[in-house]
Amino acid sequence: MQLSKLVKAMVVAIPVLALAACSSAPDDTSSTTADGTTTTGQDRRGVETGAADRVLSPEEQRQQRFAELRQEYIIYFDFDTSEVRGEFAELLAAHADYLVRNPSARVVIEGHTDERGTPEYNIALGERRAQATADYLRNLGVSSSQMTTVSYGEEKPLARGSNERAWSQNRRAVLVY
């Protein structure tokens, strides 16, 4: 008989517990924005609430990083050289990844120089810079048929002026899609 009373007490208590766990007043400051994103806040006890953000896979992180890098399209060169600097390796890898994944995409690589040197020398140097950039992309798997090079030499400066700041901005290759 004791067991029967205990079971009856549990049956009565369970719905009460379920009701006690529900509340009509919100405990947090979360809200849903127009794009469906839920923002989270803290409940009355100061405990952080809300769903955890989805963790990106390493490949998704790489693609996100490459998309950010592709917003940059200028490769700068040191004075009187056409050697691609190591600091542009990741930038060029991002562009190469895009071109390899999109075989119908085409890019024109423009070579530029600063104003120092003869026009003939600068056209040749601009061509070497554009070609060095194309070679770098080719080594990363980009098809030659996707790339065209052109040299403008000193004819299209990015920065006006006869000082190191202007010259350093004009020594470049530009990727144009």
UniProtKB/TrEMBL annotation:
Signal sequence range: 1-20
Sequence segments annotated as region (Disordered): 24-61
Keyword Ribosomal protein: no
Membrane topology qualifier: Lipid-anchor
Major subcellular site: membrane
Protein function: Part of the Tol-Pal system, which plays a role in outer membrane invagination during cell division and is important for maintaining outer membrane integrity.
Record text on subunit structure and interactions: The Tol-Pal system is composed of five core proteins: the inner membrane proteins TolA, TolQ and TolR, the periplasmic protein TolB and the outer membrane protein Pal. They form a network linking the inner and outer membranes and the peptidoglycan layer.
NCBIfam families with a match to the protein in the record: Pal_lipo
Family recorded in the similarity comment: Belongs to the Pal lipoprotein family.
Protein name as it appears in the record: Peptidoglycan-associated lipoprotein
